[in-house]
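Quick start: what a row looks like.
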Amino acid sequence: MDARMRWLQVRWPTTTTMLELPICIGLIGAMVLVAVHSLDRAEQHLRVVEAVSMAAGPTVMMTEYHAVTGSWPASNAQSGYLDPSVGRLRSILIREGGAVDLTFSSRVGELSGKVVSFRAWEGTDSGLPLVWSCGHSSVPPLRSASADRSTLKDDELSSSCRSRR
């Protein structure tokens, strides 16, 4: 019988040794820590994406107001948007220059009190084209009449709201 056949006939122990057990438990613990951190970041990111989707109402109202009057509304009442707080947001504030600030409520943990801004970017030809951008993003050929008041860092924002470098 050659050496290869003898190696196949060797029976390895089927029990776990005392050295393998703590190594296995340590690896499982490390994987759980990474999974919990990733889940927390994903939940936070989903809350920001939810806020981005909540901005559709105020931006539509502001766009309609701008189309009719030729200027941007300076408040929620002026634009006709009367629901200042929805869900996990403490407030939805329309401000002059074509901007909406969404402030997170205390129900969202680390994001509590932080702001995501939506700004209108206009062309020089009588306000057309009109593009809405969120957070730190910009639309280079167009100009914005309002400042970015977002307090979230780039890694907390959705990809469409991050600054381009």
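That is the whole record. The mean pLDDT is 82. The chain has one domain: 44-161.
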